[in-house]
Amino acid sequence: MIDFNPYDWSFHEDPYPTYKALREEAPCYRNEKLGFWALSRHEDVMEALKDWETFSSADGVALEFFGPSASAVMSFLAMDPPLHDRIRELVSKGFTPRRVQFFESRVRALANHYIDQFIDRGSCEFVNDFAGRLPMDVISQMVGVPGEDSEMIRRWADLVVHREKGQPGIPPEGAQASGQLLNYFRDLVSAYRKAPQDDLTSALIAAEIDGDHLEDREIVAFLFLMAIAGNETTTKLLTHALDCLHRFPEQRAQVEADPALIPAWVEETLRYDNSSQILYRTVTRDLEMHGEIVKKGDRVALLIGSANRDPRVFDRPDEFDLSRDCGALASFGRGVHFCLGASLARLEATVSLQEIQRRLSQIELDRGGLVRAHSGNVRGFAVMPMTFRKSMQLTSR
Predict the structure, then answer these.
(1) What is the number of structural domains in the chain?
(2) Using N-to-C axis directions, what is the helix angle for 342-359 and 104-118, rounded to 10°?
(3) For residue 326, pLDDT beyond 90
(4) Within a domain: residue 397?
(5) Lowest mean pLDDT among 65-79, 220-234, 254-268
(6) pLDDT tier at 99 (50, 70, 90 boundaries)?
(7) What is the residue-averaged pLDDT of the chain?
(8) Residue 270 maps to which CATH number?
(9) For a FRET experiment, which of 9, 70, 100, 312 has its CA 20 to 30 Å from that of 116?
(10) pTM, two decimal places
(11) Where are the beta strands (DSSP E) in the chain?
(12) Over the stretch 165-206, which tens digit does the pLDDT of each residue have?
């Protein structure tokens, strides 16, 4: 009998055998104890992501964020149209592709700043020394958080997504950190409303469509979303990228020989072991799926990680292949909820890995020292020790 429990940490160590069993034996699975259904096949997941009228996001996208209050911390991620469309369109006025691309040079500078701090040691703990710092620094610079506050924001964000082993729900420390983040961003919005700067927060304050502006609480919710989703997922993406490549030596040799393959490295990592494994929806009507009756109001887990390994779509799905066509990725969603930060995540990952490959060689992970993060829907490493040598032949930046 299949037992799928997102709070079972043995599942998070390697969820893919469970996903395989679900796809073949229980494509519409019911967890009675926790009260949710799970869809595991690529077609079902992608259709549910697209069908916002049936699979509503209004109660939140994590099992814990249930109810109308979800949008206070998840912004338009926890909304359906037309409210979703209004907020997203206004936010897009500030979060433009041009603004994202402007940050390429800053991401490269940050990457080299952190590499400079550990390169002479020949070793580092990749999460604490690089992957856990760079994404939050990028977000902090983008939204106008003073540099000295970036580490504090990262610490709060980590607490918000952390879950205690075997315990559903948000730990007290996570709830407290959520309040601290919200209060911090309220003060930030208030400060920039009085004295606008050249940053995303000020751009959001000024965003306007036919006389409509974002309210302070709406800007605060989006900044909270940026701090949580934009930080945690990119951190995990970077750790997965190193882990994937070092588990497949032939693919590693290809990237080392040809840095032009780094974007493909990022895309295949997003497929093979994506950070966001699960998104939740609430069903707005009764429906039948794979012989099961899902009732109006039921919660449904969309297993992104399983969809990305579905052999109906991806040939040899359990192999890491840089030549693979990743056009059918489920990682950034589909339809109205397609991830607004997808281009920023790809930019951060690509530039970071370019600088890591350019400056470090013979990277080896201490596999005995790897520690996975505890989270209900995000998969990745909390600790990643590694050794390396300085590259003898550096290309120009």
Answers:
(1) 1
(2) 40
(3) yes
(4) no
(5) 65-79
(6) confident
(7) 91
(8) 1.10.630.10
(9) 100
(10) 0.92
(11) 28-31, 36-39, 55-56, 123-125, 208-209, 212-213, 278-283, 287-289, 292-294, 299-303, 360-365, 371-372, 381-383, 385-390
(12) 666 667 788 889 889 999 999 999 999 999 999 999 999 999
Report d(CA 345, CA 235) in Å as an integer.
10
Per-residue tokens: 91: 């936010």
Query: Encoding tokens for residue 68?
Result: 């109308």
- Burial annotation 218-243 (CB, 10 A radius, 16+ → b, else e): bbbbbbbbbbbbbbbbbbbbbbbbbb
Does residue 58 sit within a domain?
Answer: yes
**What is the distance between the alpha carbons of residues 296 and 200, in angstroms, rounded to a whole number?**
39
> Does residue 251 fall inside a structural domain?
yes
CB 309 within 8 A of CB 20: yes
3-class DSSP state of 315: coil
Sheet holding 36-39, edge to edge: 28-31, 36-39, 299-303, 278-283, 55-56
User: In which domain, by residue range, is 164 found?
Assistant: 9-390
Q: Which pLDDT score is estimated for 135?
A: 92
Contact 237, 243 (CB under 8 A): no
Ramachandran region, residue 16 (left: φ > 0; alpha: ψ -120 to 50; beta: rest): alpha
